[in-house]
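Team,

Forwarding the record for the chain on the shared tracking sheet. I've put the sequence and predicted structure together so nobody has to dig through attachments.
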Amino acid sequence: MALPVLKNKAARAIFLDRHLLSAAPSGSGKGEDLLDLITQLGFVQVDSINTVERAHHMVLRARRAAYRPTNLTPLLEKDHSLFEHWTHDASMIPTAFFPHWKLRFERDAETLRRQWRSWRREGFEEKVDTLLERIEAEGPKSSACVGEGEKRGSRGWWDWHPSKTALEYLWRTGELTITRRESFKKFYDVTARVLDAGLISSEPKRQSSIDWLCNAALDRLGFATSTEIADFWDIVTKAEAKEWCATAGLTEIDVESVDGTLRRSFARDGILDETPPKPTSRLRILSPFDPALRDRKRAERLFGFHYRIEIFVPEAKRQYGYYVFPMLEGDRLVGRIDMKALRSDDILNVTGLWWERDVQATPARRKKLLAELDRMARFAGVERVVIDPKLGLTSEH
């Protein structure tokens, strides 16, 4: 029997609304407003690349024009209303969710010991207890503060010495918490000294956490396959998500892709009757790690936008550039732009611009992009925007 169909335009509107990209950016972008934003998103992925600003700051700025990177620090280091841990990647997560991360801690404890025995240097397990005792006695430590006398790796950033591995293991299994960063370097302290005792003592049953994680994922996606629900937090297994979808009283629908093909998905009752707000026509530049784009295949199905990061692609083989930024206008991903904040020169330097094949670079659209670049320069803390004349936009303003 044919399933109800959620048409592509409606699917995009719902998806953007769930990802808080329908309305024009507003709000203070700090304090409770910022915490509420991250809570609605679920998490914000942390990434170290800083061509304009780091990815987590770009994600938050896309939804709060007033946001500045210093606004995040009090939530992490003073109020501890956010904690850093793992979803599909390293992320900042509302601390209210901490009890459900105990399922991850439990699973990581077994998995990482087994994997890191062969993937990392030998001897990290012998360092775990002594390292934890040292931090309990002396206070927060970074990886640079431990491992005295241990041989440093020479095979890349991932070639950790045993104490660094033990430090990461204690963090991944919940014994330690990141209490602050200095120049992006993580300092770890005993979790009991950092987070609220009530959250630490809370022990949800396994099925309660699975139910919470699956419900929270679907609420933030709007519609999803069981695999997409599992992948959202990357804590529940695909089998657990599949079983949850079968027993949670959900509606099965077909979601229309931009090319007209259908993808069977799960949703709440009434999704076909939703009237999400029409996405703003404002053009905004997104981080490559924006939650709406994290699943590259889903972005391609919904928006017809093929995006890959080319950081590790040799320069001569890159189609676009080292780290290009997607551009969203209304309910369409209209292109990508290559830019970098050159703070020593006090400029935002724009060196590449590619509109999608079916997008016209109209005067109105170019004007919107120039306005967004001005906003981006202010966000990056530079004085002006300089654009390569070959791009046909403007040379300098």
